[in-house]
Design a protein that fits this description.
This protein is of the alpha+beta class. Helices cover 63% and strands 13% of the residues.
Length: 483
């Protein structure tokens, strides 16, 4: 007798250690219900944070698009070193010394310049100009300010419209991330409740069967029942141990998944409040969404925004045919020299104010083909939207069917649990009076166990299907009440 008890203790050590550890951590655990889980997930999950950052990034892109309409000012600085200076040639009599000018009318420096020019003008043997004249200096320095202002540039205005749609699209994607995260958190939370309830059912069944086994052993020692009854009860009790361990492992996996979705560390102890029974009390009073117009569906909204963006891209391509008008201003100081004595440099100013009118005429068909590409993209999005809408409507119909089926299953399994418990109680009494067998007792106990598990699975399936329906319809992020 004692040896068998020791065997049971060793077989249950993994489960019992988990129970004792869980009990020790309850005081330090993070206690959450569904509302708290959603609140933490929507504030700590990295996916949501990335989506919010994307909105901020698009807002900066819009400001950048507006900045293109402002004056563009640039300070410029340039240095050029001539490897070989440019040579120019003059035809004979190019206004230099013509009309019989008197050499006495020129200074010595001017006479030297005239001699060089005359040499450059003298025709060569082949009748061409002379040796030519090298102009400029080896070092050219320039520094100044360039200013440009777009006056009429239609493509810039369209870019602003596209950036505004980008922001709205990013906001809708962020909303979709929140809806998807809420759906995952709800289903993960319900999965953890299902694992906990299943574990609780197996534990209670094990405790009940342990008492029954002890009673059967006592009856066997008194010679009331056969040894077969003891062996059968013992085998059934041991067969529950793998289910207990498996349900405990499912609890750990579901808890880790919930922690990951909530964006908290896996080492943080977690205590989930409530059970699936709490949701069953109010599920028949819950209002199932009846609006199937998909007006709030995030996928459809994103397609609408993408179509608007594609329409803007189409208009932008057509605006490539439009003329543009840009004003410019330039103020530059230039210095030319042959040395690097900066203190002796002479800087000469140069400035210019201009207006540029650009009228597109021919680009090899690039603009035409760009318009056609944008037009085809619009058609593609239109067809894709129809396909997505059909799939979403089918998903809604399936969710409604699942919800109605699960409601019926909950009602049926609830009744079967009561009947199974009643049948098990009757079977035990029959066995105690000698009118029943241990096989009948085991069958009745198994029926109770299966009914309990099916009942909780039906509640989970209902809550999961309702969460999926709310996700497809794009409903605001609201938890399912357990009150």
């Amino acid at each position: 007798m004692n040896l068998r008890r020791i065997t049971y203790i060793f077989l249950l050590l993994p489960a019992l250690s988990g129970w004792s550890t869980a009990g020790a951590q309850q005081t330090d655990s993070l206690r959450i219900d569904l509302n708290r889980a959603l609140e933490i997930a929507l504030s700590e999950n990295p996916t949501v944070k990335v989506a919010d950052m994307e909105i901020t990034k698009k807002q900066y892109a819009l400001k950048s698009a507006y900045g293109a309409l402002m004056p563009q000012m640039d300070l410029i600085g340039q240095y050029q070193r001539a490897i070989k200076r440019q040579t120019v040639y003059f035809d004979e009599g190019f206004g230099m010394g013509g009309g019989g000018a008197d050499p006495g009318d020129y200074t010595p420096e001017e006479l030297k310049i005239l001699q060089v020019l005359q040499k450059a003008m003298m025709p060569g043997d082949g009748g061409d100009s002379g040796e030519g004249l090298q102009m400029g200096r080896f070092n050219v320095w320039s520094a100044g300010l360039n200013v440009s202002l777009p006056v009429v540039v239609p493509s810039l205005w369209k870019n602003i419209r596209m950036s505004e749609v980008d922001i709205r699209l990013s906001m809708e994607k962020a909303r979709a991330s929140r809806i998807d995260l809420a759906n995952q958190v709800k289903k993960s939370f319900f999965s953890l409740l299902l694992a906990q309830d299943s574990h609780s059912v197996f534990r209670k069944t094990y405790e009940t069967d342990s008492i029954n086994l002890e009673d059967i052993r006592n009856r066997y020692s008194q010679g009331v029942v056969a040894e077969y009854d003891v062996i059968t009860a013992d085998v059934r009790l041991k067969s529950l141990i793998p289910n207990i361990l498996q349900s405990e492992n499912m609890m750990k996996i579901a808890e880790l998944q919930l922690k990951m979705l909530m964006g908290i560390d896996s080492d943080v102890p977690l205590k989930v409040l409530g059970s699936l029974d709490d949701y069953e009390k109010s599920m028949f009073d819950a209002i199932i969404p009846a609006d199937t117009s998909l007006i709030s569906n995030s996928d459809i909204r994103q397609f609408n925004l993408q179509s608007e963006q594609a329409k803007n891209a189409y208009d932008l391509q057509k605006l490539q045919y439009a003329p543009s008008l840009v004003t410019s201003f330039n103020w530059t100081y230039t210095s030319q020299n042959n040395d690097f004595r900066f203190g002796t440099y002479r800087w000469d100013p140069y400035s210019m104010l201009g207006v540029t009118l650009q009228i597109p005429l021919f680009s090899g068909g690039q603009r035409y083909h760009g318009v056609k590409q944008s037009q085809i993209q619009l058609w593609q999005l239109s067809e894709q939207r129809k396909d997505v809408e059909r799939a979403l409507k089918l998903s809604i119909r399936n969710s409604y069917d699942l919800i109605h089926k699960n409601v019926q299953q909950v009602a049926a399994t609830q009744s079967s649990v009561e009947q199974a418990r009643k049948g098990h109680s009757i079977t035990l009494k029959r066995y105690e009076t000698g009118m029943g067998t241990i096989v009948d007792v085991n069958a009745a106990a198994l029926a109770v166990l299966n009914a309990e598990l099916q009942y909780r699975n039906a509640i989970y399936d209902y809550l999961s299907a309702k969460a999926d329906l709310e996700k497809v319809l794009g409903y605001d992020i609201t938890p399912v009440s357990a009150e």
